[in-house]
């Protein structure tokens, strides 16, 4: 019999070299694809991060504007409240002007002959009057005149003393009020038809 010997060693080495080359090529290709995918992912995430930072900057800018607007509105509200308080003061003063004139007119109208006022203090609706009278009877008459006035309540006499030149000094207090039937302007009210 005859034996044929075939040497397969070079063929195996060529096949192994081819497989090694193919494997190296596949590994290189996988590495390139992996690097490309990684680089693409990094670019995508960087773009997302840049977009997010841009949105954050926009939101921060809007919040700054809103804070500025809120401060401005708060200042406007404070100014409006201040103006409202000033208007209320002006209205009270406007209402009080005719009332003060009315009080002085009532004081003049109720003044008895021989009675002189030397001092007048006003706190709210209470008047404190100091003055001189020729005698005690005139002080009593003055108290009755004030009580009869539609502008004053019952006066309270706190002190009567003898003064120089046979005059009597007196101190009294009386509450004032707007007479019924008169409005804030001191004009008698008229009923609607």
Short summary:
The chain has 193 residues and is α+β, with helices and mostly antiparallel strands. 60% of the residues lie in helices and 17% in strands.
Set out the fold topology.
Elements: H1 9-110, E1 115-123, E2 126-133, H2 136-148, E3 156-162, E4 168-175
Antiparallel strand pairs: 1-2, 2-4, 3-4
Structure, described:
With 193 residues, the chain is an alpha+beta fold. The protein has a domain at 63-186: Gyrase A, domain 2. 60% of the residues lie in helices and 17% in strands. It contains two helices and four strands; from the N terminus they run αββαββ. The protein has helices at residues 9-110, 136-148; strands at residues 115-123, 126-133, 156-162, 168-175. A four-stranded antiparallel β-sheet has the order 1-2-4-3. β3 and β4 form a beta hairpin. The radius of gyration is 53 Å and the shape is rod-shaped. Residues 183-193 have low confidence and may be disordered.
């Amino acid at each position: 019999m005859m034996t044929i010997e075939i040497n397969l060693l070079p063929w195996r080495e060529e096949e192994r070299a081819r497989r090694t080359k193919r494997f190296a090529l596949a590994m290189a290709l996988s590495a390139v694809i992996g690097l490309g995918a990684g680089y693409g992912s990094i670019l995508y995430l960087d773009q997302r991060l840049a977009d997010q930072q841009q949105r954050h900057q926009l939101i921060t800018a809007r919040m700054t504007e809103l804070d500025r607007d809120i401060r401005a509105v708060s200042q406007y509200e404070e100014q409006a409240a201040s103006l409202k308080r000033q208007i209320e003061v002006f209205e009270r003063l406007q209402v009080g002007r005719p009332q003060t004139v009315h009080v002085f007119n009532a004081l003049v109208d109720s003044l008895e002959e021989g009675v002189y006022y030397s001092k007048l203090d006003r706190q709210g609706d209470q008047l404190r009057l100091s003055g001189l009278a020729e005698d005690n009877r005139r002080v009593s008459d003055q108290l009755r005149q004030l009580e009869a006035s539609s502008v004053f309540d019952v006066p309270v006499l706190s002190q009567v003393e003898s003064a120089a030149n046979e005059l009597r000094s007196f101190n009294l207090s009386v509450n004032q009020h707007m007479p019924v039937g008169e409005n804030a302007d001191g004009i008698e009210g008229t009923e609607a038809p």
